[in-house]
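#onboarding

Welcome to the new folks! Below is a worked example of what a typical request in this channel looks like: someone posts a single protein sequence, and someone else replies with the predicted structure as tokens. Don't worry about understanding the tokens yet, we'll cover that in week two.

Example request:
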Amino acid sequence: MTDHKLIDRARSGDADAFRKLYEAHVDRVYRLAFRMCGEDDMARDMTQDTFIRVHQRLDQFRGDSAFTTWLHAIAVSVTLNGLRKRKRIQSRESPLDESTPHAAPDAVRAEPDLRDRLRSAIDGLPEIYRSVFVMHDLEGYNHREIASALDVAEGTSKARLSRARSRLRTALDDFAPEYA
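Example response:
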């Protein structure tokens, strides 16, 4: 059954139809949320919040674009809002280990592996760049879908992806200086 038929049935109160929509799209929404926030628990929460919002606003889906585009726009919005909320909360907290002595500056530090550095570099991107990078390079969305989901022009999506890649090259240049 197509998404549009399931949507029509779900709008009329068919819980089974909404469940089928959920099952068809939950994995991709979770991957998107996980790649944006980097934490399993938070990604699960963002996925759940996304589908709650979709259920509440299903009547607002006009069908002008694909359901997946509308769904993923909601997922991006929910995840970005969740990340902002977490930052606000964390800015009010003080670290428990403030009294812990810091390592001596001469201490030898092992170089972390590339995967950890890459994850850290992606997490360090500004949200506007990180969301485009994750959607395009990690999740495979095209610029038209990204532009629609983020409500920006396609050229803006392309420019943000270019800037994200440039920042990642700079952050990781010690691993492969020939690409910096």
